[in-house]
Model the fold of this input.
Amino acid sequence: MTGTGGPLAGVRVVELAGIGPAPFCAMLLADLGADVVRVDRPTAPDGDHDLLNRGKRSVQIDLKHERGAAAVLALVERADVLLEGLRPGVTERLGVGPQQCWAVNPKLVYGRMTGWGQQGPLATTAGHDIDYIALTGMLHAIGRADGPPQVPANLLGDFGGGAMYLAVGVLAALLEARTSGRGQVVDAAIVDGAAHLGAMLFSMLATGGWRTERGTNLLDTGAPYYDVYETADGEYVAVGALEPQFYTELLDRLGLVGEVPDRDDPANWPHLRERFATTFRQRTRQEWTEVFADSDACVAPVLSMTEAETHPHLAARETLVRRDGALQPAPAPRFSRTSNPPPGPVAEPGADTDAVLRDWEITSELLDSGAFHPRKP
Done:
């Protein structure tokens, strides 16, 4: 690994402060080496351990000040990307909408992160991750038979269907702008991204391989060989023995070869599940981890976030790291030549104003105008 600043070194990103998926997208770009400047409000609280602000720099701008928009546009003029996660129309009213930004920088990629999108009947209404994935059918698909939908934290909507799609869109628009010389809006809606993540399930639905009844399908705990099982100590192991050869090894390690019915007949699934559950309850999670060590049975212990830190594989790859006492995921993915920088510190509101203005060559006239808010002592 011989890189110095990550594959996005030299890319400048302006992030208008928000919550959830837009800050995560900006963090991801910073992890990849971009110079991300977060525009915080004068009243922004300290960052503490908000890892979504790691690796960024912060300036505080009062957008209600008569020169507030001009201060943001001064940054935009020198940037490649702007990210915002406000309701449709808000940035236009603040004087920093797409047209206003393109007037000073026609090549700017303008990334917009919302739940419902920029258009549509719900575009201006409030919502959260759970609402967005509910409308797409994805929440309905998650859960056990005869049970309610299970909420996957805010990973599927905010971060999977939202932030990651914003990042992909921004990077694609950056590539296109290098050829065309023109920026464009990236309208990243969580409803669009979450639905898009379900492409394989929709494909299976179209071909009869997926039922809308929860907990009856191959990948939703319907199949007993793709599920989690409780162990003797009240912990759990995950079983994902889909392929025949992996399933054969699962039975061998469980001592069930020749003792269970054919898995290809769903009528046998209740009996299979009962046998698996009874068997897994006979040993602890650690004992089963040792039984399945170095096997292709596709069985893994279900670890908490703090336990994951010390797992030998994750430790060897340094998948989770600590900085300033906070456990956090290392930047991903990894690159062979332009390696990512280590996770940067959490940006404190306004702490980097002087450095950003110097590095981005912003005039002192704007600094003296009062639009840039001094950091609280």
Notes: The longest helix spans residues 155-180. Residues 31 and 331 are 5 Å apart (CA to CA).
